[in-house]
Amino acid sequence: MIQIAVMGYGTVGSGVVEVIEKNKEEINKKSGEDINIKYILDLREFPGDPYADKVVHDVELILNDPEIKIICETMGGLKPAYDFTKRALMSGISVCTSNKELVAVHGPELIEIAHANKCNYLFEASVGGGIPIIRPLNYSLTAEKIDGITGILNGTTNYILSKMEKEGADFGEVLKEAQEKGYAERNPEADVEGYDACRKIAILSSLMCGKNVKYQDIYTEGITKITPADFVYAHAMGKTIKLLAQSKEKEGCFYAMVAPFMISKSHPLYMVNDVFNAVCVHGNMLGDSMYYGRGAGKLPTASAVVSDVVDCARHIGKVIMCFWDSQDVALTNIDQASRRFFVRVALEKESQALQVFESVSVIEAPIEGEFAFVTDEMTEKEFNEKAEEVGIIGRIRIEE
Amino acid sequence: MIQIAVMGYGTVGSGVVEVIEKNKEEINKKSGEDINIKYILDLREFPGDPYADKVVHDVELILNDPEIKIICETMGGLKPAYDFTKRALMSGISVCTSNKELVAVHGPELIEIAHANKCNYLFEASVGGGIPIIRPLNYSLTAEKIDGITGILNGTTNYILSKMEKEGADFGEVLKEAQEKGYAERNPEADVEGYDACRKIAILSSLMCGKNVKYQDIYTEGITKITPADFVYAHAMGKTIKLLAQSKEKEGCFYAMVAPFMISKSHPLYMVNDVFNAVCVHGNMLGDSMYYGRGAGKLPTASAVVSDVVDCARHIGKVIMCFWDSQDVALTNIDQASRRFFVRVALEKESQALQVFESVSVIEAPIEGEFAFVTDEMTEKEFNEKAEEVGIIGRIRIEE
Q1: Residues near A60 by Cβ (< 8 Å), separated by ≥ 6?
Q2: What is the distance in angstroms between the Cα of A102 and the nearest Cα belonging to chain B?
Q3: pLDDT digits (tens, 9 = 90+) for A92-112
Q4: A124 touching chain B per CB within 8 A
Q5: Does A304 touch chain B (CB under 8 A)?
Q6: Pick from A22, A31, A285: which is nearest to B303 by CB?
Q7: ipTM score of the complex?
Q8: What CATH number corresponds to the domain at position A342?
Q9: What backbone torsions phi and psi does residue A91 show, to the nearest 5 degrees?
Q10: Which of A144, A166, A305 to mutate to test the interface with B (most CBs of B within 10 A)?
Q11: Which pLDDT tens digit goes with each residue over B169-199?
Q12: What is the 3-state secondary structure (H, E, C) of chain A?
């Protein structure tokens, strides 16, 4: 019997308890031993809850109980999760977390502490909810030199963009509807400005290069400026618009960014709609592989946390491979990154735009008073200079 | 330093050598020790090959060398691969294989022998080439009760169907072209009749239920009867036609089959085109997740074999979890499975068809002299009886 504790009895925490109860048979079989939830830590009381008798308010009870071997940290936020996690790991208790913020900020330190204490800090649920992506990166693609990761990593923005495309609706309108349905938070900034996707690609990028990619260094642009007209153009080009989180290694330079991109029908991420998420991984032998599923939600996220519990249960006293050094990676400024751009200018600027951007592909679409085109490949810096010279309505990057 | 041997220096075997050479740094780091290829077993000589000095013709050299800890079996076929693998495992040498036939026929026995001798029999490359699917099933989805697996598991047939769809071409025509390009074998039966996909879904189904699904028990239908007219109808319905390999658990019954299905645009497998493969896995907590990539090819397949080598290298003397009992699963006859069917009959049978099938959705498409429709949900048995009564031109199952 392996005794575990759940810290934080909110959406994901209660999901963890539900998954462990519902799939007891499978989980115990795969763990090699029975898993038992001994404590649930939460400040609140849960009268009438079937697990009310396991709820405790004092973390010391958990951290000082030598029977506890694994903790599920489903509290979220940096404080007090960071302190609790650190103390648990220093006592040799493995921690499985869904807390992307904590992983993005303190991942390498916590992994190092875990390994020094012959336990593990696992975080499958921190990226892509129920999509298995951390374990495939760490255990499956071990024969690859991974040089690119591109993902749709935020369900809220993908839901909004899918709706805008389908209904020709305005960003603000769809956001409001998404908030009413509970698909978007009341304060939607973390999602719509790309901050959530930024934390997640920081984690994946770090695993890609084995060093630390700081989320603060990642260029991040949200979806608030995307308009119905952009989708009309995208449609005319056989493309759609997705918020991509991306990390690439090219000739020794690391680039990472979050921004809306136009992608074509042949791109594997094209069909990832609504609240689904997906991650494309490019390896030098394998080419592209993709991992697709529900990026969020109580049970998918909880299922990922519990898969970490099973992994920890099978490795009590042993370190599970994870390469994520605390050494920071110097990201190359995206000014140096090259790509094509979709551009909209006022109709009267057509000839000036053609002169400044030289060779372009003109896009025909039923939008009045505008001239739209796709540039040749050029660096972001070069593009920005030309765009400023002409004065543009908008631009969206193109992912090939 | 871990000494390994490669058995069979054909396409995959030489790919294994290439991957280990090219990604030496990553592979050694992830293995925790340097991997060295000591022998390559093949009947042929390879004069001028940079690894010519490692080529041996006598398997005894490998099996009797106590330094060898891991063997890559890339010979294919049952004989002599089965004997070599069994002897290696009995000596405590782990075996990593791309040989789907051997895994499908002797998988549980070889896994049992491996575990009894504290070594491992791994087969990531046997299904879906470079798509990590075995490891996600065994290590990632451990908190799930998996009740369905649906895959496009054969690159040749997917290439042919994609071409037929795009070009409106005939099966025979496209097959000939695929043979000329090397995408299809001279004797294409194993691919186009679904036998290859059948072996692969037998392996996945066995892992899904932890018991043995015999490939001989799986209902298997190929793509040879699919015509350009079928694609015209599919198009009119917003669908496409894919060869699906499928395994489902429903109320305690296990169904497994390989057959062409119509799937709609919203299905995650809709966009899997050309030589790409993908596997959809349904779990009771996670819902659908999907794994997508190159299903075949020298380097992707070799990369999967080498990922197994890394796993074995990290677990020398230890057993890696894999639940696949030798106890055979009694599959439920697909006669009992329910679904909707797309049906084509001669125009003069319209009223008879409407009478026999009762409630149907009529499909309008520019095909002369025919009447086409989709039935309500019914069992295969019921469908077959009605179809025989009416006399139909053809039918394709519909995957919802």
Answers
A1: none
A2: 22
A3: 999 999 999 999 999 999 999
A4: yes
A5: yes
A6: A285
A7: 0.94
A8: 3.30.70.1150
A9: -90, 10
A10: A144
A11: 999 999 999 999 888 889 999 999 999 999 9
A12: CEEEEEECCCHHHHHHHHHHHHCHHHHHHHHCCCEEEEEEECCCCCCCCCCHHHEECCHHHHHCCCCEEEEEECCCCCCCHHHHHHHHHHCCCEEEECCHHHHHHHHHHHHHHHHHCCCCEECHHHCCCCCCCHHHHHHHCCCCCEEEEEEECCHHHHHHHHHHHHHCCCHHHHHHHHHHHCCCCCCCHHHHCCHHHHHHHHHHHHHHHCCECCHHHCEECCCCCCCHHHHHHHHHCCEEEEEEEEEEEECCEEEEEEEEEEEECCCCCCCCCCCEEEEEEEECCCEEEEEEEECCCHHHHHHHHHHHHHHHHHCCCCCCCCCCCCCECCCCCHHHCEEEEEEEEEHHHHHHHHHHHCCEEEECCCCCCEEEEEECCEEHHHHHHHHHHHCCCEEEEECC
Q: Which residues contact B349 (CB under 8 A, 6 or more apart)?
A: B371, B390, B391
Q: Are residues B39 and B146 in the same domain?
A: no
Chain A residues close to B296, C-beta within 8 Å: none
Same domain, A261 and A273: yes
Residue A358 belongs to domain spanning: 336-398
Domain termination residue (choose one: B259, B279, B314): B314
Which residues of chain A lie closer than 8 angstroms to B311, CB-CB?
Answer: 139, 142
Name the catalytic one among B100, B200, B211, B349: B200
User: For chain A, what is the domain count?
Assistant: 3
Of the partner residues B144, B290, B300, the one whose CB lies closest to the CB of residue A26: B144
Distance CA A259, CA A152 (A): 10
pLDDT at B288 over 90: yes
Average pLDDT value over all residues in chain B: 96
In a domain, A330, yes or no: no
Residues A284 and A375 both lie in one domain: no
Residue B88 within any structural domain of the chain: yes
User: Do residues A77 and A21 both lie within one domain?
Assistant: yes
Extract the tokens encoding A281: 């991984």
Q: Is the pLDDT of residue B74 over 90?
A: yes
| b (16+ CB within 10 A) / e for A218-244 | bbbebbbebebbbbbbbeebebbbbbb
pLDDT, tens digit (0-9, with 9 covering 90-100), for A114-137: 999 999 999 999 998 889 999 999
The verdict on A284 and A185 lying in the same domain is yes
Residue A117 and residue A182 in one domain: no
Q: Which of B23, B292, B304 sits opposite A268 (nearest CB)?
A: B292
Quick check: bond before A80 cis, omega within 30?
A: yes
Residue A248 known to be catalytic: no
Looking at beta carbons, which residues of chain B come within 8 Å of A307? 139-144
